[in-house]
Amino acid sequence: MSKICVIGLGYIGLPTATMFATHGYNLVGVDINPKVVESLKQGKIHIELEHEMNELIQKAIKSKNFIIKSKPEDADVFIICVSTLLNEKEKKAELKYVISATESILSYIKKGNIIILESTSPPGTILNVVVPIIERVISIKDVYVAHCPERVIPGNMLKEFINNDRIIGGINKESSQKAKEIYESFVKGNIYLTDATTAEMVKLMENTYRDVNIALANEFAKICEDLNINVWEAIELANKHPRVNIHKPGPGVGGHCIPIVPWFIIEKSLNNANLIPFARHINTSMPNYIVKMLEEEIKHIKNPVITIFGVAFKSNIDDISETPAIPIIELLEKKNYQIKIYDPFVKKFKYNLSSLNDAVKDSDCILIVTDHDDFKSIEINKIGNLMRNKILVDTRNCVDYDKWKLNGFKVKVLGIPEKEKNKNE
Ligand SMILES: NC(=O)c1ccc[n+]([C@@H]2O[C@H](COP(=O)([O-])OP(=O)(O)OC[C@H]3O[C@@H](n4cnc5c(N)ncnc54)[C@H](O)[C@@H]3O)[C@@H](O)[C@H]2O)c1
Q1: Which of 65, 78, 107, 334 makes a 20 to 30 Å CA pair with 417?
Q2: Residue 90 above 50 pLDDT?
Protein backbone atom coordinates (compact mmCIF):
# COMPACT_ATOMS: atom_id res chain seq x y z
CA MET A 1 0.00 0.00 0.00
CA SER A 2 1.44 3.43 -0.97
CA LYS A 3 2.05 6.02 1.69
CA ILE A 4 0.91 9.64 1.48
CA CYS A 5 2.15 12.46 3.71
CA VAL A 6 -0.24 15.42 3.88
CA ILE A 7 1.34 18.67 5.12
CA GLY A 8 -1.13 21.01 6.87
CA LEU A 9 -4.24 19.67 8.61
CA GLY A 10 -6.66 22.58 8.33
CA TYR A 11 -10.00 22.93 6.55
CA ILE A 12 -8.60 21.39 3.37
CA GLY A 13 -5.69 19.19 4.52
CA LEU A 14 -7.58 17.26 7.21
CA PRO A 15 -10.51 16.19 5.01
CA THR A 16 -8.16 15.52 2.06
CA ALA A 17 -5.95 13.30 4.23
CA THR A 18 -9.06 11.50 5.45
CA MET A 19 -10.28 10.84 1.91
CA PHE A 20 -6.98 9.16 1.03
CA ALA A 21 -6.78 7.29 4.36
CA THR A 22 -10.23 5.80 3.73
CA HIS A 23 -9.46 4.93 0.10
CA GLY A 24 -6.53 2.59 0.28
CA TYR A 25 -3.55 4.70 1.35
CA ASN A 26 -1.40 4.73 4.46
CA LEU A 27 -1.65 8.28 5.61
CA VAL A 28 0.60 10.47 7.71
CA GLY A 29 -0.90 13.87 8.46
CA VAL A 30 1.50 16.61 9.57
CA ASP A 31 0.83 19.95 11.20
CA ILE A 32 3.29 22.41 12.75
CA ASN A 33 0.73 23.59 15.27
CA PRO A 34 1.23 21.38 18.39
CA LYS A 35 -2.35 22.08 19.53
CA VAL A 36 -3.72 20.70 16.25
CA VAL A 37 -1.52 17.60 16.53
CA GLU A 38 -2.46 16.97 20.18
CA SER A 39 -6.14 17.37 19.64
CA LEU A 40 -6.26 15.18 16.50
CA LYS A 41 -4.22 12.46 18.22
CA GLN A 42 -7.03 12.29 20.77
CA GLY A 43 -9.57 12.09 17.95
CA LYS A 44 -10.80 15.65 18.64
CA ILE A 45 -11.39 17.75 15.55
CA HIS A 46 -10.13 21.32 15.98
CA ILE A 47 -12.12 22.90 13.14
CA GLU A 48 -15.83 23.08 12.35
CA LEU A 49 -16.69 20.64 9.59
CA GLU A 50 -19.92 18.98 8.57
CA HIS A 51 -21.10 16.03 10.67
CA GLU A 52 -20.43 13.30 8.04
CA MET A 53 -16.89 14.57 7.51
CA ASN A 54 -16.22 14.62 11.27
CA GLU A 55 -17.34 11.00 11.53
CA LEU A 56 -15.13 9.93 8.63
CA ILE A 57 -12.08 11.70 10.12
CA GLN A 58 -12.63 10.03 13.49
CA LYS A 59 -13.07 6.65 11.82
CA ALA A 60 -9.84 7.12 9.83
CA ILE A 61 -7.83 8.13 12.90
CA LYS A 62 -9.23 5.19 14.93
CA SER A 63 -8.38 2.74 12.12
CA LYS A 64 -4.67 3.57 12.68
CA ASN A 65 -4.44 4.13 8.93
CA PHE A 66 -4.22 7.87 9.54
CA ILE A 67 -1.31 8.79 11.81
CA ILE A 68 -0.91 12.35 13.07
CA LYS A 69 2.62 13.75 13.35
CA SER A 70 4.36 17.06 13.92
CA LYS A 71 7.05 16.36 11.32
CA PRO A 72 6.96 14.78 7.85
CA GLU A 73 8.45 11.36 7.20
CA ASP A 74 9.38 9.19 4.20
CA ALA A 75 6.45 8.67 1.85
CA ASP A 76 5.63 7.95 -1.79
CA VAL A 77 3.47 11.06 -2.16
CA PHE A 78 3.61 14.46 -0.45
CA ILE A 79 0.55 16.71 -0.60
CA ILE A 80 0.93 20.30 0.62
CA CYS A 81 -2.29 21.87 1.95
CA VAL A 82 -1.09 24.91 3.91
CA SER A 83 -2.72 28.32 3.86
CA THR A 84 -1.95 31.00 1.29
CA LEU A 85 -3.12 34.18 2.95
CA LEU A 86 -3.32 37.65 1.51
CA ASN A 87 -0.70 40.16 2.58
CA GLU A 88 -3.23 42.93 3.27
CA LYS A 89 -0.73 45.76 2.91
CA GLU A 90 0.78 44.72 -0.40
CA LYS A 91 -2.33 42.91 -1.70
CA LYS A 92 -0.16 39.95 -2.66
CA ALA A 93 -0.23 36.25 -1.84
CA GLU A 94 1.67 35.35 1.32
CA LEU A 95 3.63 32.26 0.24
CA LYS A 96 5.69 31.79 3.41
CA TYR A 97 3.70 28.69 4.47
CA VAL A 98 4.02 27.05 1.03
CA ILE A 99 7.76 27.75 1.10
CA SER A 100 8.32 26.38 4.62
CA ALA A 101 6.08 23.35 3.98
CA THR A 102 8.05 22.53 0.80
CA GLU A 103 11.31 22.97 2.72
CA SER A 104 10.04 20.70 5.48
CA ILE A 105 9.86 17.69 3.13
CA LEU A 106 13.31 18.15 1.55
CA SER A 107 15.05 15.62 3.84
CA TYR A 108 12.51 12.96 2.90
CA ILE A 109 12.21 13.40 -0.87
CA LYS A 110 13.56 10.51 -2.93
CA LYS A 111 13.55 9.41 -6.56
CA GLY A 112 10.06 8.58 -7.86
CA ASN A 113 8.18 10.68 -5.28
CA ILE A 114 5.07 12.60 -6.28
CA ILE A 115 4.80 16.12 -4.81
CA ILE A 116 1.46 17.87 -5.07
CA LEU A 117 0.59 21.43 -4.08
CA GLU A 118 -3.10 21.85 -3.25
CA SER A 119 -2.81 25.35 -1.77
CA THR A 120 -4.32 28.12 -3.89
CA SER A 121 -1.38 29.92 -5.51
CA PRO A 122 -0.62 32.75 -7.94
CA PRO A 123 0.26 31.54 -11.46
CA GLY A 124 3.91 30.50 -11.59
CA THR A 125 4.21 29.37 -7.95
CA ILE A 126 4.93 25.73 -8.82
CA LEU A 127 7.52 26.58 -11.47
CA ASN A 128 9.18 29.56 -9.79
CA VAL A 129 8.83 28.79 -6.08
CA VAL A 130 8.19 25.08 -5.42
CA VAL A 131 10.40 23.51 -8.11
CA PRO A 132 13.56 25.54 -7.24
CA ILE A 133 13.19 24.48 -3.58
CA ILE A 134 12.91 20.79 -4.55
CA GLU A 135 15.93 21.15 -6.87
CA ARG A 136 18.07 21.95 -3.82
CA VAL A 137 18.07 18.23 -2.99
CA ILE A 138 17.15 16.27 -6.13
CA SER A 139 17.01 16.65 -9.90
CA ILE A 140 13.48 17.65 -10.90
CA LYS A 141 13.65 14.87 -13.54
CA ASP A 142 13.65 12.32 -10.72
CA VAL A 143 10.35 13.40 -9.13
CA TYR A 144 6.82 14.23 -10.26
CA VAL A 145 5.38 17.64 -9.31
CA ALA A 146 1.80 18.87 -9.85
CA HIS A 147 -0.73 21.44 -8.72
CA CYS A 148 -4.15 20.13 -7.77
CA PRO A 149 -6.22 23.08 -6.57
CA GLU A 150 -9.02 22.45 -4.09
CA ARG A 151 -12.48 23.82 -4.90
CA VAL A 152 -14.78 22.20 -2.32
CA ILE A 153 -17.25 24.32 -0.41
CA PRO A 154 -17.31 24.20 3.41
CA GLY A 155 -20.53 22.57 4.57
CA ASN A 156 -20.79 20.11 1.66
CA MET A 157 -17.23 18.85 1.53
CA LEU A 158 -17.72 15.10 1.49
CA LYS A 159 -20.04 15.15 -1.53
CA GLU A 160 -17.91 17.67 -3.36
CA PHE A 161 -14.63 15.83 -2.70
CA ILE A 162 -16.11 12.79 -4.40
CA ASN A 163 -18.23 14.33 -7.14
CA ASN A 164 -16.51 17.56 -8.21
CA ASP A 165 -14.47 17.55 -11.38
CA ARG A 166 -10.80 18.24 -10.69
CA ILE A 167 -8.07 20.06 -12.54
CA ILE A 168 -4.54 18.73 -12.26
CA GLY A 169 -1.55 20.50 -13.76
CA GLY A 170 1.85 18.86 -13.72
CA ILE A 171 5.29 20.24 -14.56
CA ASN A 172 5.18 17.63 -17.35
CA LYS A 173 2.71 15.05 -18.69
CA GLU A 174 4.04 12.24 -16.48
CA SER A 175 3.55 14.37 -13.36
CA SER A 176 -0.07 15.16 -14.30
CA GLN A 177 -0.76 11.48 -14.98
CA LYS A 178 0.85 10.29 -11.72
CA ALA A 179 -1.14 12.82 -9.68
CA LYS A 180 -4.34 11.83 -11.47
CA GLU A 181 -3.83 8.18 -10.51
CA ILE A 182 -3.68 9.19 -6.83
CA TYR A 183 -6.90 11.25 -6.88
CA GLU A 184 -8.76 8.59 -8.87
CA SER A 185 -8.85 6.57 -5.65
CA PHE A 186 -11.86 8.61 -4.46
CA VAL A 187 -12.81 11.20 -7.12
CA LYS A 188 -15.83 10.19 -9.18
CA GLY A 189 -15.96 13.46 -11.15
CA ASN A 190 -13.86 13.99 -14.26
CA ILE A 191 -10.18 14.74 -13.78
CA TYR A 192 -8.83 17.12 -16.42
CA LEU A 193 -5.11 17.39 -17.01
CA THR A 194 -3.18 20.53 -17.94
CA ASP A 195 0.10 22.23 -17.09
CA ALA A 196 0.89 23.55 -13.60
CA THR A 197 0.51 27.27 -14.33
CA THR A 198 -2.82 26.81 -16.12
CA ALA A 199 -4.13 24.77 -13.18
CA GLU A 200 -3.11 27.60 -10.82
CA MET A 201 -4.90 30.15 -13.02
CA VAL A 202 -8.06 28.03 -13.37
CA LYS A 203 -8.71 28.01 -9.61
CA LEU A 204 -8.15 31.79 -9.41
CA MET A 205 -10.41 32.41 -12.39
CA GLU A 206 -13.27 30.44 -10.83
CA ASN A 207 -13.25 32.52 -7.64
CA THR A 208 -12.70 35.77 -9.53
CA TYR A 209 -15.65 35.03 -11.81
CA ARG A 210 -17.84 34.83 -8.72
CA ASP A 211 -16.42 38.02 -7.22
CA VAL A 212 -16.86 40.05 -10.40
CA ASN A 213 -20.41 38.78 -10.88
CA ILE A 214 -21.38 39.55 -7.29
CA ALA A 215 -20.00 43.06 -7.85
CA LEU A 216 -22.19 43.36 -10.93
CA ALA A 217 -25.24 42.28 -8.92
CA ASN A 218 -24.35 44.82 -6.21
CA GLU A 219 -24.06 47.55 -8.81
CA PHE A 220 -27.41 46.54 -10.29
CA ALA A 221 -28.92 46.76 -6.77
CA LYS A 222 -27.74 50.34 -6.34
CA ILE A 223 -28.83 51.36 -9.85
CA CYS A 224 -32.26 49.74 -9.43
CA GLU A 225 -32.81 51.56 -6.13
CA ASP A 226 -31.97 54.80 -7.93
CA LEU A 227 -34.37 54.01 -10.77
CA ASN A 228 -37.20 52.77 -8.54
CA ILE A 229 -36.95 49.17 -9.71
CA ASN A 230 -37.00 46.02 -7.60
CA VAL A 231 -33.60 44.46 -8.40
CA TRP A 232 -34.59 41.00 -7.15
CA GLU A 233 -37.51 40.80 -9.53
CA ALA A 234 -35.39 42.18 -12.38
CA ILE A 235 -32.61 39.61 -11.74
CA GLU A 236 -35.10 36.75 -11.58
CA LEU A 237 -36.57 37.77 -14.91
CA ALA A 238 -33.19 38.42 -16.57
CA ASN A 239 -32.06 34.95 -15.44
CA LYS A 240 -34.90 33.42 -17.46
CA HIS A 241 -32.61 34.05 -20.43
CA PRO A 242 -30.80 30.78 -21.20
CA ARG A 243 -27.34 32.36 -21.15
CA VAL A 244 -27.69 34.76 -18.22
CA ASN A 245 -26.83 33.98 -14.60
CA ILE A 246 -26.81 37.18 -12.57
CA HIS A 247 -25.67 36.57 -8.99
CA LYS A 248 -27.34 37.90 -5.84
CA PRO A 249 -26.53 41.29 -4.36
CA GLY A 250 -25.65 41.45 -0.66
CA PRO A 251 -23.65 43.14 2.09
CA GLY A 252 -20.25 42.13 0.66
CA VAL A 253 -18.28 38.97 -0.04
CA GLY A 254 -16.80 36.64 2.57
CA GLY A 255 -15.26 33.18 2.76
CA HIS A 256 -11.84 31.60 2.45
CA CYS A 257 -11.33 32.20 -1.25
CA ILE A 258 -13.49 34.72 -3.14
CA PRO A 259 -12.41 37.95 -1.37
CA ILE A 260 -8.71 36.97 -1.42
CA VAL A 261 -7.98 35.05 -4.58
CA PRO A 262 -8.66 37.84 -7.16
CA TRP A 263 -5.62 39.65 -5.73
CA PHE A 264 -3.43 36.67 -6.71
CA ILE A 265 -4.30 37.41 -10.35
CA ILE A 266 -4.01 41.18 -10.01
CA GLU A 267 -0.49 40.99 -8.53
CA LYS A 268 0.74 38.99 -11.51
CA SER A 269 -0.60 41.25 -14.27
CA LEU A 270 -1.09 44.70 -12.76
CA ASN A 271 -1.30 46.54 -16.09
CA ASN A 272 -4.00 44.30 -17.48
CA ALA A 273 -6.20 43.75 -14.44
CA ASN A 274 -8.76 46.59 -14.48
CA LEU A 275 -12.16 45.01 -13.98
CA ILE A 276 -10.99 42.62 -11.24
CA PRO A 277 -9.69 45.27 -8.78
CA PHE A 278 -12.74 47.42 -9.50
CA ALA A 279 -15.05 44.52 -8.66
CA ARG A 280 -13.11 44.05 -5.41
CA HIS A 281 -13.61 47.72 -4.66
CA ILE A 282 -17.37 47.49 -5.28
CA ASN A 283 -17.72 44.47 -3.00
CA THR A 284 -15.56 45.85 -0.19
CA SER A 285 -17.53 49.11 -0.26
CA MET A 286 -20.86 47.34 0.26
CA PRO A 287 -20.67 47.48 4.10
CA ASN A 288 -20.43 51.26 3.79
CA TYR A 289 -23.48 51.34 1.51
CA ILE A 290 -25.40 49.08 3.91
CA VAL A 291 -24.60 51.29 6.90
CA LYS A 292 -25.81 54.39 5.02
CA MET A 293 -28.98 52.52 4.02
CA LEU A 294 -29.54 51.53 7.65
CA GLU A 295 -28.93 55.05 8.93
CA GLU A 296 -31.61 56.37 6.61
CA GLU A 297 -34.10 54.07 8.38
CA ILE A 298 -33.14 55.00 11.94
CA LYS A 299 -32.28 58.68 11.57
CA HIS A 300 -35.39 59.75 13.50
CA ILE A 301 -34.46 57.65 16.57
CA LYS A 302 -32.38 59.03 19.43
CA ASN A 303 -29.53 56.69 20.51
CA PRO A 304 -30.77 53.78 18.42
CA VAL A 305 -29.99 50.17 19.34
CA ILE A 306 -29.22 47.94 16.36
CA THR A 307 -29.52 44.15 16.35
CA ILE A 308 -27.41 42.31 13.80
CA PHE A 309 -28.94 39.05 12.59
CA GLY A 310 -26.24 36.71 11.29
CA VAL A 311 -22.47 37.16 11.17
CA ALA A 312 -21.41 34.00 9.29
CA PHE A 313 -20.11 34.75 5.80
CA LYS A 314 -22.93 32.73 4.26
CA SER A 315 -26.16 30.98 5.20
CA ASN A 316 -26.56 28.08 7.61
CA ILE A 317 -22.91 27.66 8.61
CA ASP A 318 -20.81 28.96 11.51
CA ASP A 319 -17.86 30.09 9.37
CA ILE A 320 -16.98 33.76 9.81
CA SER A 321 -13.94 33.99 7.49
CA GLU A 322 -13.75 37.41 5.87
CA THR A 323 -17.39 38.01 6.79
CA PRO A 324 -18.76 41.42 5.75
CA ALA A 325 -20.42 41.51 9.18
CA ILE A 326 -17.11 42.65 10.70
CA PRO A 327 -16.64 45.82 8.58
CA ILE A 328 -20.34 46.60 9.10
CA ILE A 329 -19.99 46.30 12.89
CA GLU A 330 -16.75 48.31 12.84
CA LEU A 331 -18.46 51.13 10.93
CA LEU A 332 -21.43 51.10 13.31
CA GLU A 333 -19.13 51.12 16.35
CA LYS A 334 -17.18 54.06 14.95
CA LYS A 335 -20.47 55.94 14.81
CA ASN A 336 -21.14 54.97 18.46
CA TYR A 337 -24.30 52.97 17.82
CA GLN A 338 -25.24 50.42 20.42
CA ILE A 339 -25.08 46.97 18.80
CA LYS A 340 -26.33 43.53 19.77
CA ILE A 341 -25.59 40.43 17.73
CA TYR A 342 -27.51 37.18 17.22
CA ASP A 343 -26.37 34.26 15.08
CA PRO A 344 -27.95 30.82 15.57
CA PHE A 345 -24.86 29.07 14.11
CA VAL A 346 -21.80 31.05 15.19
CA LYS A 347 -20.47 30.25 18.66
CA LYS A 348 -17.13 32.12 18.61
CA PHE A 349 -16.86 35.70 17.39
CA LYS A 350 -14.71 38.74 18.14
CA TYR A 351 -17.80 40.62 19.39
CA ASN A 352 -20.25 39.45 22.06
CA LEU A 353 -23.07 37.26 20.85
CA SER A 354 -26.53 37.29 22.47
CA SER A 355 -29.49 34.95 22.55
CA LEU A 356 -32.34 35.90 20.24
CA ASN A 357 -34.46 37.42 23.02
CA ASP A 358 -31.57 39.39 24.54
CA ALA A 359 -30.50 40.61 21.12
CA VAL A 360 -33.90 42.06 20.23
CA LYS A 361 -34.91 43.32 23.69
CA ASP A 362 -35.31 47.12 23.56
CA SER A 363 -33.75 47.20 20.11
CA ASP A 364 -34.87 49.66 17.45
CA CYS A 365 -33.81 47.89 14.29
CA ILE A 366 -32.87 44.41 13.05
CA LEU A 367 -30.19 44.32 10.35
CA ILE A 368 -30.03 40.97 8.52
CA VAL A 369 -26.47 40.38 7.32
CA THR A 370 -26.53 36.58 6.81
CA ASP A 371 -29.43 34.72 5.18
CA HIS A 372 -29.72 31.87 7.70
CA ASP A 373 -32.89 29.80 7.14
CA ASP A 374 -33.77 30.22 10.85
CA PHE A 375 -34.68 33.86 10.17
CA LYS A 376 -37.50 32.75 7.87
CA SER A 377 -39.33 30.94 10.66
CA ILE A 378 -38.76 33.45 13.44
CA GLU A 379 -41.82 34.39 15.54
CA ILE A 380 -42.09 37.93 14.27
CA ASN A 381 -44.83 39.01 16.64
CA LYS A 382 -42.92 37.71 19.66
CA ILE A 383 -39.67 39.50 18.87
CA GLY A 384 -41.55 42.63 17.74
CA ASN A 385 -43.12 42.82 21.20
CA LEU A 386 -39.68 42.90 22.81
CA MET A 387 -38.40 45.73 20.60
CA ARG A 388 -38.57 49.46 21.22
CA ASN A 389 -39.06 50.29 17.53
CA LYS A 390 -39.97 47.79 14.82
CA ILE A 391 -37.62 48.32 11.87
CA LEU A 392 -36.16 45.57 9.67
CA VAL A 393 -33.29 46.15 7.23
CA ASP A 394 -32.61 43.06 5.10
CA THR A 395 -29.42 42.98 3.03
CA ARG A 396 -30.24 39.55 1.53
CA ASN A 397 -33.94 39.64 0.71
CA CYS A 398 -34.23 36.43 2.69
CA VAL A 399 -37.46 36.83 4.69
CA ASP A 400 -41.11 37.23 3.75
CA TYR A 401 -41.19 40.96 4.31
CA ASP A 402 -44.98 41.21 3.81
CA LYS A 403 -45.34 39.10 6.99
CA TRP A 404 -42.99 41.45 8.86
CA LYS A 405 -45.00 44.44 7.64
CA LEU A 406 -48.23 42.78 8.80
CA ASN A 407 -46.62 42.51 12.24
CA GLY A 408 -46.02 46.24 12.36
CA PHE A 409 -42.44 46.38 11.02
CA LYS A 410 -41.16 49.06 8.71
CA VAL A 411 -39.08 47.10 6.21
CA LYS A 412 -36.19 48.11 3.97
CA VAL A 413 -34.60 45.54 1.64
CA LEU A 414 -31.36 46.09 -0.29
CA GLY A 415 -32.24 46.70 -3.95
CA ILE A 416 -35.90 47.42 -3.34
CA PRO A 417 -36.70 51.12 -3.47
CA GLU A 418 -38.85 52.74 -0.82
CA LYS A 419 -41.65 53.61 -3.20
CA GLU A 420 -41.48 50.76 -5.63
CA LYS A 421 -42.72 51.85 -9.03
CA ASN A 422 -46.25 50.74 -9.76
CA LYS A 423 -45.73 48.41 -12.70
CA ASN A 424 -49.17 49.25 -14.10
CA GLU A 425 -48.50 52.97 -14.25
N1 LIG B 1 -10.90 26.52 3.46
C2 LIG B 1 -11.51 26.48 2.28
O3 LIG B 1 -12.73 26.51 2.16
C4 LIG B 1 -10.68 26.37 1.02
C5 LIG B 1 -11.31 26.03 -0.17
C6 LIG B 1 -10.54 25.87 -1.33
C7 LIG B 1 -9.16 26.08 -1.26
N8 LIG B 1 -8.57 26.43 -0.08
C9 LIG B 1 -7.12 26.62 -0.07
O10 LIG B 1 -6.54 25.52 0.61
C11 LIG B 1 -5.34 25.92 1.27
C12 LIG B 1 -5.41 25.52 2.73
O13 LIG B 1 -6.42 26.30 3.34
P14 LIG B 1 -7.09 25.90 4.72
O15 LIG B 1 -8.37 26.63 4.79
O16 LIG B 1 -7.07 24.42 4.89
O17 LIG B 1 -6.03 26.55 5.75
P18 LIG B 1 -6.00 26.35 7.33
O19 LIG B 1 -5.42 27.60 7.87
O20 LIG B 1 -7.32 25.86 7.82
O21 LIG B 1 -4.98 25.15 7.54
C22 LIG B 1 -3.62 25.22 7.25
C23 LIG B 1 -2.88 24.32 8.26
O24 LIG B 1 -1.53 24.19 7.83
C25 LIG B 1 -0.69 24.19 8.99
N26 LIG B 1 0.68 24.53 8.54
C27 LIG B 1 1.17 25.73 8.14
N28 LIG B 1 2.47 25.59 7.79
C29 LIG B 1 2.79 24.29 7.96
C30 LIG B 1 3.98 23.52 7.75
N31 LIG B 1 5.10 24.08 7.31
N32 LIG B 1 3.95 22.20 8.05
C33 LIG B 1 2.81 21.61 8.52
N34 LIG B 1 1.66 22.28 8.73
C35 LIG B 1 1.64 23.60 8.44
C36 LIG B 1 -1.34 25.19 9.92
O37 LIG B 1 -0.94 24.97 11.26
C38 LIG B 1 -2.83 24.89 9.68
O39 LIG B 1 -3.32 23.92 10.60
C40 LIG B 1 -5.22 27.44 1.05
O41 LIG B 1 -4.38 27.71 -0.01
C42 LIG B 1 -6.64 27.84 0.70
O43 LIG B 1 -6.66 28.99 -0.12
C44 LIG B 1 -9.30 26.58 1.06
Answers
A1: 334
A2: yes
| CATH number for the domain whose boundaries are 286-413 | 3.40.50.720
In angstroms, what CA-CA distances link 242 with 211, 239, 245, 246, 378?
21, 7, 8, 11, 36
**Could you tell me the pTM of the whole model?**
0.94
Quick check: CB of 260 below 6 Å from ligand 1? no
Query: 246-265, pLDDT tens digit by residue?
Result: 999 999 999 989 999 999 99
CB 57 within 8 A of CB 49: yes
Question: Is 16 a pocket residue for ligand 1 (Cβ < 6 Å)?
Answer: no
Cα 161 to ligand 1 centroid, rounded to whole Å: 16
Say yes or no to pLDDT of 150 above 90. yes
Sheet holding 26-30, edge to edge: 66-69, 26-30, 3-7, 77-80, 114-117, 144-147, 166-170, 191-195
Helices (H) and strands (E) in the chain, counts: 17, 15
The superfamily in CATH containing domain 3-203 is NAD(P)-binding Rossmann-like Domain (3.40.50.720)
What pLDDT, in 10s, does the model give residues 315-326?
998 899 999 999
Domain segments of the chain: what residues? Answer: 3-203, 286-413
